[in-house]
Structures are given as C-alpha cells and as structure tokens.
Backbone:
C-alpha cells in the first residue's frame, strides 16, 4: 500500500471516533459585508492567493508543485464531502447541507486557509502572505478564529481536512520538517562530482564532463550574486531536491526499482561515447545557434502563428503548423515578428525563475485563462451537462496539479539519477579544450567544439587583425570563438547584449545575471515535463486539444523584458493546442541556454505519460471508482 493509502486508513479510523457535539457553523464573521467577487469561484480565489505566495518564495518548482497539489487535494476533499458519488483523496467523508454552495465554500476556505498558513509561515514574504490569507477570509466573511475540528459543520470539516493534509505532508518523503532538505550526511543521496564553476572565471574544469556542475557566485552582504564588491564571499549552488523521486506521488507507479525512477527516460547523449558523441556535440552547437538569433536588429522576421508553428509529433521538432482553426474553419492569420524578439520573449515568458509562480504555477495561470474564456464550454471531459464554475475549478485543479506534482517527482528522479551536465559547463569546457573537427589544424582536441563557419571558429592572427571579425579577441589567438548572444548588458533596463563573436570560455546563457542556470541537473527538462503533463490534463479535461476558439494568445508588451531591453514592439504568442504551448515552453529553454534538445524531448515524452495517468486517476476520484 502507498504512503498515501496508509495515511487514508489512519484518517478513516480517526474520523469514526470524532464527536458530533458541535454541529453549528461558528465560522461566519458577524456583521460582515462580503467583498469577494461573487462571479469568481472560491477555489479560484484561493488558487490566486497561493500563486502570489509562490511568487514571493524561493523559486523551487518541486516544493511549489507539491503545495499546489496538496492545496488542490484540500479543495477536492471539501467539495467531494458534499457529493454522493465522489471519493475524497485524504479525508473521505459524506455530508449533507441545505445550502451546498455555502457549505462547500466554507469547508474549502477553512481547509486551504489553515494549510497555506502552515506551509508559508516561514517563507520569504511570509508577513505579506499571512496577511493576504487573513484578508481573503475576511472578504469571504469567514472567521480566522474558528479552529475546531470537531463536529459536522463545514468549518470543522475544513479544519479537519487541513490537519490531515498537513500531517500527510510530514510523512510523504518531501522532508518538509527539515526545510525540504536532508541532514547533509553521505547517505542523504547526492553529492556533485565536479568542482564548482566560478562565474567570474573563464572556462570550466570538469572531472566528469557528462555530469552536472554547480555554479559559484561572488556575493555581497545583500545576498545578490555579483562579481563586484570589496570583500566578496562565494555562494555555491546546492542541488535542489535530489531526493524528490521518493516523494509520495499521485498517479505515478511506485518506485520499486533500486534506482528510484518512476519513469526511466534512458540515457542522454554523452561526450566521448562512441555512439552518442556526435549527438552531444550537435546539441551544443544547436544551443549556440539559438543564441545567435537573439538580436532583433538583424532584420530577420518570422511567422509565429499556429498556421506555421506547432503540431509536432511527440518527441520531435517536426511540426509545420495547422491547416486551419477548427473553430472557425479558416486558416490562421499570419503573426509576423522579429526573430530576435521572438527568441528573447520565449526565453523570458517561460523562464519561471525568481519572483515567478515557477513552471507548475505558470500552467495554473494558463488553466485559469482557459477557464475564463468566453468560448469555453464547461463540460468535464467534453461530455455531460455543463458544470458550475466551482465544480469546474476544483476538479481542474485536482487533476492538473496532481499531474504537475507527479511531473516534479518523475523529472527530479531522472535529474538525480543521470546528473546531467548543463550547457554553460558544456560550452565553456569544450571551448577551453579547442576544436574537434580537424586533427591537422591548430587547437585540436577530440572533445572540443566542432568547427562551423560563421558559428564556431578558431581565432587566428588573420581573423583578429584590425577590422576583422575577431579583432576584439586578438589577445586570444588559438582560442575558440563562437558567434552567439554576447552576454549581459551593463544596464538591462536600457541595453542589449546583442549578438557577436565571443570567447567560448566566457559564454553565458540568456538568463538573469543573478540566476544564470538552475541549481540542479539538466536531464530531463522540468519545463518540458511539467508542460506536457499539464497539456495532457487540459486536453482530457476540456475534451479538446485545442484552446477555446482554436487559439490561445498571450501578449508580451513592448519594453517589458527583464534580462535586457525589449521587445521592440508588442509580441503576441499564439498556440492552437495545449501541446503547442507545452512544446514552446520546452523549446524556450534552448533559446535561453538552459537545456539541450535531449533534455527537452525526453521531458516531453515523460510528461505525456505522467499527464495521461494523472487524468485517468482523477476521473476515478470524480466518479467514486477509485480502487483501494
């Protein structure tokens, strides 16, 4: 039996012995004028509160996917308690009420209020988050002082659900009680094999070039990474959540294998391996080439409408768009934009780093936008009668966040197991070795970067003469130069790094200068896994792979980028299907220099399996068909 299953038995036994002396609902705040929008479901209200709390917290997608799921569980158990068919996930009780909407709203709110108060009590921005929780209860005319778990009242039920979800979370393998980390012992599960890469230094020394390398930042007392300051100390990345593959899942197969891989994606390509060395090097070149597109002044324009982009077979980049919008029967209108702006917008829109809702939260915002769409027909799975907004939201969050929770578990199990290198280490290390194309040419090394005219070249006396392409690298004769994004501008609010020839050993990805690359291994891409899992649930839940009206859109305003100035004009991202949006999220990480294609494509395949399984299990809870 799973950990969740064992806990459900304990809960069921405990509930039998609960007294029923307190049958009234004492949670209503007296003399209160409700200010919460009556057109917005209470589930959506609390989802938005949680997303704001995530934005204030550390950008840890594993932890936040779990919080999103557990909050969705609390919502679901509160809703299901008043449905004669549905099965609760942790607390499975049956209740009746004269006013079902009011009872569900009260039970759900108390459950989420107490759970979020527990989860975010010591997080960054906790004072704002806790005040937001209190204000939300006040807006719903519910008392924050009602804490009883005894009896049949909706408030007591909600408090009971919160208590049980909190207790479950202390036994699910996430190590919540110790701050989601281990005890630091050798048996704790992970230690990097490569010494840290100091960002202020050129190159990358790797003991094992196929394994992850932590980054080291110089930092001042403010805690912001910087290469300046009178007395800098060094902060080294620690692998985030290497134990996450052992967290209790929603629909994943329990990790019975000794390696703890719920879904094994198979090996990525390795540098120096006879059968995959070429694929490894090609992937590195591909990231450099993507970086060379990040200049909107180059005059190159592309059509990014669904008529030309998307419709990829799973695990490929082979799509050529959609012939027509299925809702209108007409072709998609062209959506032409500067290629350099498109790449930068994709990298930033899907970045989901600091001060964001992180990838799982991002897919909640997309789901909320879908739910708000005027053309949406709210029939769960596209069948039956339309449901009200509360039922729609509660069921959607339960299925969606169950899938995102499982995506984190499966994805991080792979990250810990394969411990795969990131592009910043790949490019700097290989560039420092030399070129691997011509054994008879200068700077040859079999593990170096492959030469490509106009992309990867060796600096020569001739190429670095005044007026030549490598003039500014004249002191680096014999070094490998790459033509790609040139790096962080002095003032990202007004400047652009542009594209040009740089020393390969100094390459940085198109990310914030204080973030650079996430603190965990590359394979598989979390973005790709999260996104495809979410797309599968949204497809199943809505009954169609297409966005409402056949078109999803999100406009990025001119001048709103943070990594550097841009975009030049408003850029409207468009997707025909949820799969198209998910694929774009994965591809964005190549533009951003965070992943290579193996990370992306294997993550998409994993996410598809995760999402399909989560949606199938969620439906069993909806119908009360869950087997023990």
Residues:
């Amino acid at each position: 039996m799973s950990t969740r299953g064992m806990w459900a038995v304990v809960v069921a036994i405990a509930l039998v012995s609960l007294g029923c002396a307190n049958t009234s609902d004492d949670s209503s705040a007296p003399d209160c004028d409700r200010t919460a929008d009556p057109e917005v479901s209470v589930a959506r209200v609390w989802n938005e509160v949680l997303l704001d709390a995530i934005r204030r917290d550390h950008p840890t997608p594993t932890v936040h996917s779990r919080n999103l799921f557990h909050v969705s569980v609390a919502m679901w158990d509160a809703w299901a308690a008043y449905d004669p068919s549905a099965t609760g996930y942790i607390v499975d009780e049956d209740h009746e009420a004269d006013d079902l909407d009011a009872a569900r709203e009260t039970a759900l709110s108390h459950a989420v209020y107490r759970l979020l108060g527990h989860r975010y009590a010591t997080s960054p921005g906790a004072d704002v988050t806790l005040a937001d929780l209190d204000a939300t209860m006040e807006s719903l005319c519910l008392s924050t002082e009602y804490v009883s778990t005894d009896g049949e009242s909706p408030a007591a039920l909600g408090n009971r659900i919160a208590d049980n979800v909190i207790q479950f979370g202390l036994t699910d393998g996430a190590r919540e009680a110790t701050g989601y980390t281990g005890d630091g012992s050798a048996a704790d599960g992970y230690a990097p094999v490569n010494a840290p890469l100091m960002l202020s230094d050129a190159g990358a020394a790797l003991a094992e070039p196929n394994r992850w390398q932590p980054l080291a930042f110089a930092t001042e007392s403010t805690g912001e990474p910087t290469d300046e300051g009178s007395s800098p100390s060094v902060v080294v990345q620690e692998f985030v959540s290497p134990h996450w593959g052992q967290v209790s899942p929603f629909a994943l197969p329990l990790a019975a294998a000794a390696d703890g891989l719920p879904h094994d994606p198979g090996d990525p390509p390795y540098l120096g391996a006879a059968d995959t060395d070429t694929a490894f090097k090609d992937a590195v070149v591909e990231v450099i080439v993507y970086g060379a597109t990040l200049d909107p002044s180059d005059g190159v324009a592309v059509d990014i409408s669904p008529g030309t982009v998307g419709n990829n077979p799973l695990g490929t980049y082979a799509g050529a768009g959609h012939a027509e919008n299925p809702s209108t029967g007409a072709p998609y209108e062209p959506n032409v934009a500067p290629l350099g702006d498109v790449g930068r917008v994709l990298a930033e829109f899907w970045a989901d780093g600091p001060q964001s809702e992180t990838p799982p939260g991002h897919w909640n915002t997309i789901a909320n936008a879908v739910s708000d769409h005027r053309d949406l027909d709210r029939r769960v799975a596209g069948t039956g009668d339309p449901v009200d907004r509360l039922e729609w939201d509660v069921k959607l969050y339960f299925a969606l966040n169950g899938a995102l929770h499982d995506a984190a578990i499966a994805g991080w199990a792979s990250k810990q197991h394969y411990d795969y290198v990131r592009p910043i280490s790949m490019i700097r290390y290989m560039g420092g070795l030399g070129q691997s194309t011509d054994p008879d040419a200068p700077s040859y090394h079999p593990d170096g970067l492959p030469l490509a005219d106009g992309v990867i070249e060796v600096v020569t006396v001739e190429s670095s003469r005044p007026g030549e392409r490598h003039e500014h690298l004249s002191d680096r004769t014999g070094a490998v130069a790459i033509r790609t994004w040139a790096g962080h501008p002095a003032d990202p609010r007004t400047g652009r790094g542009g594209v040009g020839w740089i020393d390969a050993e100094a390459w940085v990805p198109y990310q914030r200068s204080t973030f650079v690359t996430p603190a965990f291994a590359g394979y598989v891409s979390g973005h790709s896994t999260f996104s495809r899992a979410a797309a599968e649930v949204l497809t199943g839940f809505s009954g169609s792979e297409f966005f409402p009206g056949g078109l999803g859109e999100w406009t990025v305003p001119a001048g709103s980028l943070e990594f550097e100035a841009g975009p030049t004009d408003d850029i409207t991202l468009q997707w025909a299907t949820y799969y198209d949006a998910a694929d774009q999220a994965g591809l964005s990480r190549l533009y951003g220099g965070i992943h290579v294609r193996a990370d992306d494509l294997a993550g998409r395949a994993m996410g598809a399996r995760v999402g399909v399984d989560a949606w199938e299990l969620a439906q069993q809870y909806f119908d009360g068909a869950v087997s023990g």
